[in-house]
Amino acid sequence: MRPAARATARRAALAGALAAQATWAGALAAQGAGGAAPRAAGEPAAADEVVVRSAPSRRAPTEIVLGGADAARGAGTQGDPAKALQSLPGFGRGGPGEGELIAWGGAPGETRVFVDGVEVPALYHGDGVRSIVPAGLVRDLRAAPGAYGPEYGRALGGVVRLTTEGPSVDRPHLRVGADALDGRAYASAPLGRGVAVAASGRYGWVDRLLPALGADEAGELLVVPRYADWQAQAAARLRAGEGLRATLLSSRDEFRRSVGGDDPSARRGDRRRSSFDRVFVRYERSLPDGASVALTPFVGRDERSLEASFGFGPPSRLALRSLRYGARAEYAAPLGAQAKLALGLDASGAATRVERAGSPSRPPREGDPYAFGEPPGDAYDVDAYRTSQLGVAPYAALDLALGRLRLAPALRVDAYLLEVERLRPEVGRAPPVGDSSLVAAAEPRLALRYAVAGPLEAFAAGGRYHQPPAPEDLGATFGNPRLGLASATQLAAGERLALGDFQLEALGFVKWIDGLAARPPAASPEVARLLEPGGRGRAYGASWLLRRRPAGEWFGWLSATLSRSERTNAPGLAARLSDHDRPVVVAASLGRELGPWTLSARARYASGAPRTPVVGAFVDLRSGRHQPVFGAPNSVRLPPFAQLDLRVDRAFSLGAGAALRLYLDVINVTARANAEEIVYARDFRAKAYFSGLPTLAVFGAELEQ
Amino acid sequence: MTAPAARASRPRRVARVARRDAPRARRFALLGASLACACRPAFDERPGLVEGQRLLAVVAEPAEARPGEALTLRPLIAAPEGQPAGELAWSFCQSPKPPAEDNVVGLACLLEPGSPLSWDGAVARGAMPADACVRFGPDPPPGGARPRDPDPTGGFFQPILVRAFGEVWAHPQRVACGLPSAPADVARAFAAGYRPNRNPAPPALEVEAGGRALAWDALPREIGRVTVRARWTADDAETYLWWDPTLRDLRERRESMRLSWFVSGGRLDVASTGRDEADPATESVNVWQLPEAPGPQTLWVVLRDARGGAAIAQVRAIVE
Fold first, then answer.
1. What residue in B sits closest to A384 (Cα-Cα)?
2. A427, B181: Cβ pair inside 8 Å?
3. CB A663 within 8 A of CB A606
4. Closest-CA distance of chain B to residue A375, Å
5. Are A34 and A165 in contact (CB under 8 A)?
C-alpha cells in the first residue's frame, strides 16, 4: 500500500472508531433525553430547542456515561438512575444503604458530585435511599472513578456528574408518582417565545414505614431520613444556538433515632440533619465558527449536623453551615480541522462556620478502630470557628487529532485562598490569631486515545489532583488549622472494543495520595495538631465493563473490579488496608423490554469491608463496661456481600397522551443475610454479625401526561 | 485485659445469637412494600450475674485527690460462696492514651508495669502521682504537647490498673487539678469555690413485691419477680462548680447518680439504672427474677456519682 493510501486507511480506521464512540454516546444521550435525536458534541442546538447543552465537549476516557432513563430501568435502582452507580466498574460497595461513593478504593469524601457542573454536597438522601435529583430530571449520569479531565478538580478520587433535562417547550408535561419510599410530582409548561418553566418536588415517608413494620432496628445500621427535595427550572432560547437556564435545587434530610430502655446509662440518641440549596444560571452560546461559550455562576448554602448522645453524658455534636458560591466558564474553539482548544475557569468558594463538641474520637475517621455500637470515650471538648476556602482554577485543554492518535493535554492551575479564624485553642481571654494562606497547585492532565484497528481503541489518562482540607478538620481543638492540600497522582490505561451492539472495556488504574489528614500515632500530639498531613494512600486495580448498546429489547452490562486500597496514617508506619478496600466487586445488570413490560435483574457480589478485630477486653470500673482491645488495624474482613434484585415494570397507555406505569422493585429477593457489621457481646468474648435488610420490595406507580 | 493468647487458649463462648425479629421477618404494608428488619443479633447474656470471682467496684478515699495526696482504695470483690478473695496487683498508669482513643486507658498503659501501689489483702494504698495533672490532666505537658481533655464533668483521671483473676480492671481515679485554660480570674474563682468530690453513702436497699415490703431473709420464690429499691440521700448527689467550655465561664451542676446491680443468682432486668442530673429523685429500682432453687443469694449495688465517687451496698438474701 502506498503511504498516501495507508494514511487514508488510517484516517478511515480512526473515523470508524470515533464514529463508533460517537454512536454509543449519542445513543446514551438519546436514552437520557427521552428519545430525542442525539446531538454531537459541539453541535449547535436546534432552533426550536431550549435545552441548554450541559454536557462538555470532551470526555475523560475513564468516564462512564449512562442515559438517565437507561439507568433508571435497571433492577435495584427503584427507578433512580444514580443508583446505577452501585454496579458500575471502579466503584466499590459502600455501607448498608450504599450511599457512599467509593471510587477506586478512595474515601467517599474524596469524590465530588456535580449537577449541571455545580457541586452539591451529596448524591443521595441519607444513606443512599434516593438520589437528590428525581429520576425524571436526570438526562444523563457521568461517572469517572478517577483520572478525570481538567474541567473539574478539588477531588482526590472521582467525579460524578448529573446533567438535568430542561423543561419542554413543545407542550405541558405532568408527572406524578408514589411508592413505598416517597411521593413526587413534576410539572412543566411552555410560556411561549422560547421560554419554558418546570417545577418538581418529592417527599419521603419511608422513615415512618420502618418503625410501623417493626424494622426500627434498621435505623441503627442504616440512615433512613425523612427527606424532601424540590427543584425549579426556567429556560429561555435567546437566539439560535444561545440559551439560558436558571435552576434551583434544594434538599432536606432529617434523621432521628433513640434507643430507650430501662437502663438510662445505655440510652442512645442519634440526630442528623443535612440540607443544601443551589441556585445557578447557565448561559451557553454556540458560535457560527464552531466555537462555544458557557458560563455558570452559582450561589447556595449547605448545612450538616450530627448529634449523638449516649447515657448520661452530654451529646457529641458536629454542625457545619456554609455559604457556597462560585462560577464555571469555558470558551472552546476549533483550531483548524485537527485541533480544538478550550479555555476555562472553575471557581468555587465556601465560608463555613463549624461547631463541635464531644469526644475527639467521634465521628470516627478512616482507619479508626471501633466496635460497632460502643459508646464514645469520656473526653469532652468544644470548639467553634469560621473557615473560608476559595479555589480559582483556570485551565487550558487542547484536543489534537494526530492520525490514529487523539491527544488531549491540559493544564489546570488551582489557586486556593485558605483562611482559619484560630490557630490555637482558646486559652484565657487571649484574642484568636488566625491565618490566611495562598496556595497554588499545578495540575497537568493528559488523555489519549489510539485507534488500534477498526473498533479497537486503546486509551490512557492521568494527572495530578489536589483537594483542600475539610472544614471540620481545621479546628485547633479537634483538628489542625494548618492542614494544607492533599494531592494525588492518578494513572489509567485500557482498551475499548466495540463489537456490534456490545462494547468491552478493560482498564487498569493506579493512584498515589499524599498529604492526607490523619491521626498521628503519638499519645501526646502537639497543641492544635490532633490531625497531621502525613497520611498516604495507594490504590491499584483493574476493571472490566461489558455493555450492551442501549437500543433494542435487551439492555444491561456486566462489570468487575479487582483492586487493593491501602492507607498509612504517618510516615514510618506500616501500610494497612483502607476502610474502603474492596478487592472484588462484580455486578451484572440485565433487562429486556417485552412490549409494555420491562423485566430486569441485577446480581452483585462484593468483598466485605475490612474491620479491626477485638482481641481482648478489660473493665472500666467507673462505667462498669468492658472496653475492647483492638488487634492489627483492618486485619479482618466482613463476609462477602451478595445480592439479587429484580424489577418488573409495566406501562399502560391511557389515551390522550397519558400513560400509567406500575413497577415492582424487589431488593435481595433471596433474603440473604448479608453481614454489615460485627456486634460484640458486653464482655467482647462472643461476636455475631448485624445483617442488612433481607428483603425490600417497593411497589410504585407513576402517571404521566 | 484478656490477652490475645489467653483468649485463644480459652474455650470461646459460643455466640448464641437470636434473631430477635425473626417472626416478623416478612410483613406487608400499605403501598405494597414488604420490609423486613435489619437484624441486630442478641446475645444470651444475663446482666449483672456474678458467675465467678469478679471485681465490682473500687471505693477510693478521698474520692478526688490532689497530686501527692495519700489514697486508700478498697475493692469490692464478688465471689461465689467459699471462694477466697485472691491476690490483687495494683499499679498507677504512667502512659496517657492517644486523644482520639475511646477507651479509658490506652494500650501502652495495659502493657506497661506501671507504678505499683501497696496491697494488704483488703486495702491498696499509694499516693496520687505528683505529675498526675500533667500526664493525665489539664496542665500543659512539656514540649508543647496538647493537654488532656476533661470528661463531661470537667474532671481528670489518673488510671489505676488492678490485675486479678486473669483479668484487668481500670479504675480511673479523679485528680484535683486547676483550670489553666480559663481566664485567671475564673481559675481563681474555681480554686476557691470548687469542692472536691466525696463518695456517696452506701445506698439503702429494700425489696418488695406487689406493693408489699418483704424481708431479705425470707423471699418466697413463688413470687418470682421482686422489686429492689435503692435509696440514697439528697446530699449524695452533690452540686459542684463546672467550667463550661462553651460559655467559657463557671456553672453549678448537680451530679447524676448511676447504680450497677449484681446478683449471685436469678436474673436482673437491667444491669444498671440511674438518675440524670436534672432528675432530683433519690431512689432507683430494678427487678430481680428470683432463682428457682431455694438458698442464700447475694445482691450487690454500686452507687456511683458523676464525678467518680462510689459506694457499695451488699445484702444477703434467703430465697425460700
1. B246
2. yes
3. no
4. 8
5. yes
pTM: 0.89
Pick B43 or A17 by higher pLDDT: B43
> What is the Rg, in whole angstroms, of the alpha carbon atoms belonging to chain A?
26
Omega before residue B62 within 30° of 0, cis: yes
Q: Are A244 and A238 in contact (CB under 8 A)?
A: yes
d(CA B98, CA B106): 7
Label residue B47 by pLDDT band (50, 70, 90): confident
Residue of chain B whose alpha carbon sits nearest to that of A681: B43
What tens digit of pLDDT does each residue of A305-326 get? 999 988 878 889 999 999 999 9
Determine how β-strand A405-420 pairs with β-strand A381-402.
Answer: antiparallel
Cβ within 8 Å, pair A360-B100: yes
Distances (CA, A) of B85 to A173, A514, B208, B264: 82, 55, 31, 16
Which residues of chain B are within 8 Å of residue A622 when distances are taken between CB atoms? 104, 157, 171-172, 304, 308
Distance of residue B52 Cα from the nearest chain A Cα, in angstroms: 14
- B248–A624 C-beta distance less than 8 A: no
CA distance linking residue B150 with residue B136, whole number of Å: 9
Per-residue pLDDT band at A612 (split at 50, 70, 90): very high
Question: From CA A472, how far away is CA A479, in angstroms rounded?
Answer: 7
Percent of chain B exceeding pLDDT 90 equals 73
Mean pLDDT (whole number) for A390-396: 98
| pLDDT greater than 60 at residue A117 | yes
Integer Cα distance of A153 and B311 in angstroms:
60
Q: Which residues of B touch A690 (CB under 8 A)?
A: 38-41
Report the distance separating Cα B136 and Cα B138, nearest Å.
Answer: 7
Question: Rounded to the nearest 10 degrees, how much is the dihedral formed by the CA atoms of A70, A75, A77, A79?
Answer: 60
* A244 vs A98 pLDDT, higher one: A244
Across the interface, do B38 and A619 touch by the CB < 8 Å criterion? no
Q: Under an 8 A CB cutoff, do A359 and B143 touch? A: no
Of the residues B12, B34, B40, the best mutation for testing chain A's interface (the one with the most A CB atoms within 10 Å of its CB) is: B40
DSSP assignment of A640-680 equals: PEEEEEEEEEEEEEEETTEEEEEEEEEESTT----EEEEEE
Of A214, A519, A524, the CB nearest to B96: A524
What is the value of ipTM here, to two decimals?
0.89
